[in-house]
Amino acid sequence: MSYSVGQVAGFAGVTVRTLHHYDDIGLLVPSERSRAGHRRYSDADLDRLQQILFYRELGFPLDEVAVLLDDPAADPRAHLRRQHELLTARIERLQKMAAAVEHAMEARSMGINLTPEEKFEVFGDFDPDQYEEEVQERWGDTDAYRQSRERTASYTKEDWQRIQAETDELTRRFVALMEAGEPADSEAAMDAAEEHRQGISRNHYDCGYEMHTCLGEMYVSDERFTRNLDQARPGFAAYLRDAILANAARHTS
Fold first, then answer.
1. Terminus of the chain with fewer CB atoms < 10 Å: N or C?
2. Residue 28 in contact with residue 52, Cβ under 8 Å?
3. What pTM value is reported for the model?
4. Which of 19-28, 54-63, 103-112 has the lowest mean pLDDT?
5. Dihedral over Cα of 90, 91, 96, 97: its sign
6. Cα–Cα dist 199/129, whole Å
């Protein structure tokens, strides 16, 4: 079975011009030619094209791709291992970037007022301002949002870093409880949930038990919050929600 240059371009999502270029530089020379001199690509050629496109997606220059693919000492398993390592590293970077964006979205909802330099130091190269429209649509009409904006308007970079440090320490406590097998309705977990509620009240807005349970449900119903929280430990979002509900029942029953 062989394929025309047009068919291969369609399979791979590249242009015919790109395939011509790869042929011209010797990176992907079709195995066959038709009697009329047209390029014909074999299954092996398609496998090589897949490798080329993978390395190109990772940012490798074409000359380096050629060296990688034409190394006589390399074997297919070595290429697969290398691709897996590169892809895993890229996924980890993208996950960190996504977490930073989500953190910036949450922070913006709390009324951060920092200089561009301070925002960069706290959040990296993600601008929380770009999520203002979503934040306004979601929380803009609530008393909690207005109270948080008023309370945090004067917060400095150091204030936000302190709040983040408190959050990180409480997260470590929750994770330790999970790893120790403590159920979410244990005294220790409920006490940690109470500290979580008090931290929100202290730093952002008055968070009663009904409000706290609403937040807990949002942690598992909004996949962005779930994904962000579960980076600490798989299942953490659900565990936190359950501890919040148990703590609220303890104090309101």
1. C
2. yes
3. 0.50
4. 103-112
5. positive
6. 24
User: Tens digits of per-residue pLDDT, 217-240?
Assistant: 989 988 888 988 999 999 999 999
| CA nearest neighbour of 19 among 44, 43, 37, 45 | 45
At residue 126 the predicted structure's pLDDT band, cuts being 50, 70 and 90, is very low
First to last CA, the chain: 73
- The yes-or-no verdict on residue 77 having pLDDT over 80 is no
Tokens representing 3? 């394929």
d(CA 245, CA 117): 39
As a whole number of angstroms, the distance between CA 248 and CA 209 comes to 5
Give the pLDDT mean for 17-32: 94
pLDDT at 184 over 50: yes
How far is 103 from 101, CA to CA, in rounded Å?
5
The 3-class secondary structure across 24-90, one letter per residue, is: HCCCCCCCEECCCCCEEECHHHHHHHHHHHHHHHCCCCHHHHHHHHHCCCCCHHHHHHHHHHHHHHH
* Cα separation, 179 vs 32, whole angstroms: 60
CB-count exposure of residue 24 (10 Å: 0-12, 13-18, 19+): exposed
Task: Give helix then strand counts, H and E, for the chain.
Answer: 13, 3
- Return d(Cα 10, Cα 90) in angstroms, integer: 27
Q: Which residue has the tokens 């929100």?
A: 200
Q: For the chain, what is the mean pLDDT?
A: 82
